[in-house]
């Protein structure tokens, strides 16, 4: 087992990794930017190294500074968390070249699945259900039109290097194709340095459902069920839950087996997430694979009882998964609300000093955060300041528990998304599990009901 792990991240996820290490008896090294000198991940690590100025590109993305920090402290592994360098195959390669274990999949797999067109081909070959679309990048308007004509409108143009929804264009009629393909290519070129785009059939208001996998270096690979992530706005998830209200045990078993076979086909190791779109008939279509630990991993931990971060560390150290698929049982219902330092309606960032910070606790409540009273939320990074995760016997109890917890929570000094979460949780469609990726557009199009006032009529 590793003796010392460097945590190449900040905020709640850096703290989450430190928690796992402390419980495993592994020493930790925090790295931090000049804006994070007083952050909790620095306070609770055994050692800490400043890696540069506040801007991410100068600090949390600064590969030479992070590798140097690992070398001077004698860390034998690096956990990248999510975001920043977590899906950078070059970083994973540099770690291995410096004899520091990267806690994540192999650089080869990160690279393969990071190219969305290559990932699509690999997954199709492995038997994963796909939407009809192009085999690789489409380089001309003619080819795009021919394909769209075959599969039918609407179609969607996506960047090969994309993911997370950036640089996508929906084409509803042939006369829009030329202009939209060119803008998508131009946008992809400037965002990712690669203009290649592919085309596939567009689904209206699908559900976003993802499967968690864990694979060791001895050929053992299991799935840990799904997470429903349809409650999103501008490709930022707001609420995630497990199980999905749309899945039966039978479908979970069938999709889980498909995902396990596909992950084995690319020799996937460590933690990963296979994302799907589900249409109104319950059919699944592959979207992409995330080769990192995800923000919403706690909901899976709560319904399976498996600590994903400890598992990542054990797997990276060469240990075997200690269980088979048939040993994994799903129990109860978990739900997570992401608390962002944002204006709840305008979605503009709200950095500043938190004056009061009191996230309620109670039976079945978990809070993952690195924020506290009198801490400063810097403007340089992601606006997520914490996650409230509840665990209950069933979905109705999970919703009631989440509403109770947020109602009894107080954050003052900055704006947060808590009021928006309460609005979502009070919505009859949400409560009935009638959700899709268009849910937030619908909710935000209607005026907010005044809180605590019964509607007339
Ligand atoms: C789609 C789609 C409909 N049809 N692909 C958004 C994130 C990016 N990874 C892919 N996305 C979508 N791809 C086809 N063929 C709809 C979306 C989409 C979406 C997906 C998941 C969660 C929220 C979303 C919001 C808008 C669009």
Characterization of this structure:
- This protein has 457 residues and is an alpha+beta fold.
- The protein folds into 3 domains: 4-103, 3-Layer(aba) Sandwich (Rossmann fold); 132-201, Dna Ligase, domain 1 (2-Layer Sandwich); 207-445, D-amino Acid Aminotransferase, Chain A, domain 1.
- It has 15 helices and 20 strands.
- The protein has helices spanning 11-24, 40-44, 63-73, 89-97, 107-114, 116-125, 141-151, 174-192, 249-265, 297-304, 308-316, 395-407, 418-425, 428-431, 439-445, and strands spanning 4-7, 27-33, 47-52, 77-79, 101-102, 155-159, 169-171, 197-201, 207-215, 221-233, 236-242, 270-278, 284-290, 333-340, 352-353, 356-358, 365-369, 376-377, 384-392, 410-412.
- It has an 8-stranded antiparallel beta sheet with strand order 13-12-9-10-11-14-19-17, sandwiched between helices.
- A hairpin with a 2-residue loop joins strand 10 (221-233) and strand 11 (236-242).
- It is globular and about 60 Å long.
- Bound molecules: ligand MV4.
- Ligand MV4 binds at residues 131, 156, 163-165, 200-203, 206, 208, 232, 235, 277, 287-288, 437.
């Amino acid at each position: 087992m590793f003796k010392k792990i460097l945590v190449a991240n900040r905020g709640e996820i850096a703290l989450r990794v430190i928690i796992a290490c402390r419980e495993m008896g592994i020493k930790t090294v925090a790295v931090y930017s000049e804006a994070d000198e007083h952050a909790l991940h620095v306070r609770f690590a055994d050692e800490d190294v400043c890696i540069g100025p506040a801007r991410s590109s100068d600090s949390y993305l600064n590969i030479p500074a992070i590798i140097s920090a690992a070398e001077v402290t004698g860390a034998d592994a690096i956990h990248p968390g999510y975001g920043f360098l977590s899906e950078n195959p070059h970083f994973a390669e540099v770690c291995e070249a410096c004899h520091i274990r990267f806690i994540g999949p192999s650089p080869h797999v990160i690279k393969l699945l990071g190219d969305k067109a290559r990932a699509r081909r690999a997954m199709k070959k492995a038997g994963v259900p796909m939407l009809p679309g192009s085999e690789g990048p489409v380089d001309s308007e003619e080819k795009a039109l021919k394909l769209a004509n075959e599969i039918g409108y609407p179609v969607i143009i996506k960047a090969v290097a994309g993911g997370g929804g950036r640089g996508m264009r929906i084409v509803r009629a042939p006369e829009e194709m030329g202009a939209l393909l060119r803008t998508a290519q131009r946008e992809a070129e400037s965002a990712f340095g690669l203009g290649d785009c592919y085309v596939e059939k567009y689904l209206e208001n699908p559900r976003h459902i993802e499967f968690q996998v864990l694979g060791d270096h001895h050929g053992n690979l299991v799935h840990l069920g799904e997470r429903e992530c349809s409650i999103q706005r501008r490709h930022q998830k707001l609420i995630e839950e497990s199980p999905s209200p749309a899945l039966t045990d039978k479908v979970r078993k069938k999709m889980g087996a498909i995902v396990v076979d596909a992950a084995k086909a690319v020799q996937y190791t460590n933690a990963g997430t296979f994302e799907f779109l589900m249409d109104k008939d319950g059919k699944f279509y592959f979207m992409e694979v995330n080769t990192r630990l995800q923000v919403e991993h706690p909901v899976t931990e709560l319904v399976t009882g498996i600590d994903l971060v400890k598992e990542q560390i054990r797997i990276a150290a060469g240990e075997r998964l200690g269980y088979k698929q048939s040993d994994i049982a799903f129990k109860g219902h978990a739900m997570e609300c992401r608390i962002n330092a944002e204006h709840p309606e305008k979605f503009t960032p709200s950095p500043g000093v938190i004056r009061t910070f009191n996230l309620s606790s109670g039976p079945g409540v978990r809070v993952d955060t690195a924020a506290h009273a009198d801490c400063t939320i810097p403007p340089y990074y992601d606006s997520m300041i914490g996650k409230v995760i509840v665990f209950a016997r069933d979905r109705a109890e999970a919703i009631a528990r989440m509403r109770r917890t947020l109602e009894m929570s107080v954050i003052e000094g900055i704006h947060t998304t808590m009021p928006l979460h309460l609005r979502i949780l009070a919505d009859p469609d949400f409560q009935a599990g009638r959700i899709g990726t268009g849910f937030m557009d619908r909710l935000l199009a209607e005026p907010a009901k005044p809180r605590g006032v019964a509607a007339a009529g």
